[in-house]
User: What shape does this take?
Amino acid sequence: MARSALLNVMVQAAMKAGRSLARDFGEVQNLQVSLKGPGDYVSQADRKAEEVIHAELSRARPGYAFLMEERGVVEGEDEQHRWIVDPLDGTTNFLHGLPMFSISIALERQGQIVAGVIYNPAMDELYTAERGGGAFLNDRRLRVAGRNKLADTVIGTGIPHLGRGHHGNYLIELRNVMAETAGIRRIGSAALDLAYVAAGRLDGFWEESLSPWDIAAGILMIREAGGFVSDKSGGQEMLDSGTIVAGNEAVHRALLKTLKKPLPAK
Assistant: This one.
């Protein structure tokens, strides 16, 4: 597959940061964490990966702005372009030695996502997409799954945890989706969830209370793989609302409908 110069810059940044995370992941697996505790160690790994990405992207495109998980908003001279970066999506997995975490980098041009990279260094899986150029896993073209009935689908989700999200509302949604699908999966990295929808590994996905850096690259990935993405109201304010629903056209439509149902009567 041919990549643009911009996408190559993003891939190089993701893979360089990925090498750093892979080394730190080995330390976590061996429980050789800092004296301050495993949570602090993971935060250090997170910040180190973000430093690498910031340095690589800034060197390649000095004027571009940033929206980053750790640094937040970093203004740039170029008002048309912004990098949206999550250096470690799936921190809890990383901490527990589970190889399901990722680096997510998206490029926003005039408010529109035009390129995205999601990289899982533990499995050496590189997902890339450019607007109008398709989505790829390593060098293989991606298409969303073709299943059209919810009863045949496996759906990914993000389960709210301590201090996060509205647990009661989520349990209603979960019960309704459980009743209509072949299975539900919780991977622990929203960026990977969305990449898996693009790759057809998951038929659909929904979650709320997300940040822009969790989903920006994945939104483009799914669209370029022929899928549909919206917020839970069916609109296109995912980066602002923090909610997302994804799948092929039929699954996306059915999920939106199912998520709006009340709790079924006993």
User: Anything to note?
Assistant: The chain has eight helices and 13 strands. The CA atoms of residues 156 and 193 lie 7 Å apart. The two ends are 53 Å apart (CA to CA).
